[in-house]
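Side project, low priority. Logging it here so it doesn't get lost.
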Amino acid sequence: MFSSQSILQDCMEIVRQSGDIIREHWAKPSNVRHKGRIDLVTQTDLAVEAFLKEKLADLVPGAVFMAEESSQSEREPDGLCWIIDPVDGTTNFVHRIPQVATSVALWNKDHVEFGVVNIPMMNECFSAQRGQGAFLNGKPIEVSKAEPMGNALVATGFPYDFTGRLERILERLAIMLPKSQGMRRMGAAAVDMAYVACGRVDMFYEEGLKPWDFAAGLLLVEEAGGRVTNMRGEPLRFGDVLLASNGLVHAEAVELLGPTDVS
């Protein structure tokens, strides 16, 4: 089943179609409610998730769903599972900042088989299939060649819940800002991961990410030639602090940031 490109192509078409909902809602007022003080959800999140679950349900028989707005679990699935973030960067969406992505990954037992990150307002659709490379709008992409860290543009993000984390977040910024070429905060982890995969940024790290934030991006980065681990350089598990890079600055990043990892 997974040796065929047909499932990925069908998935990409469904995700692209879901982007029409985001574009349609872009020009309308957002009906916003708060899941937390700064954690927002809109009618667009709910509409895109419902569309994706309906359309993907028959694509891989037996696959379950782990989706941001409806999932009750964040544990690693033990079988086939669609991992979905309908609107990654909801705060960006509410403020009409175009770095807004839909992220869809097909998880199989202990790894991602397919990953799609669509940024509809930028007309960019990233995709990857295990062992088949990574692509942007159908063209192959690869990570950057930047090294050492002084030549690296680093992206990061901040969790919605700062409780007990603010000191660590600021400590990492104090480490990375003078060591890197510069830092960026896109506001959507799926976008950050896609940008690592295509070489726009050279490294990305963030604490507090959920599986739907990074599942598709993880495969994008790896298939583009990069590395994704936790901050200690170990295989990434759900709940770990994520570190993604072009691979060339990874060891230096682990040396710099590993001591701040208390997860």
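Brief comment: The mean pLDDT is 92.
Revisit when time allows.
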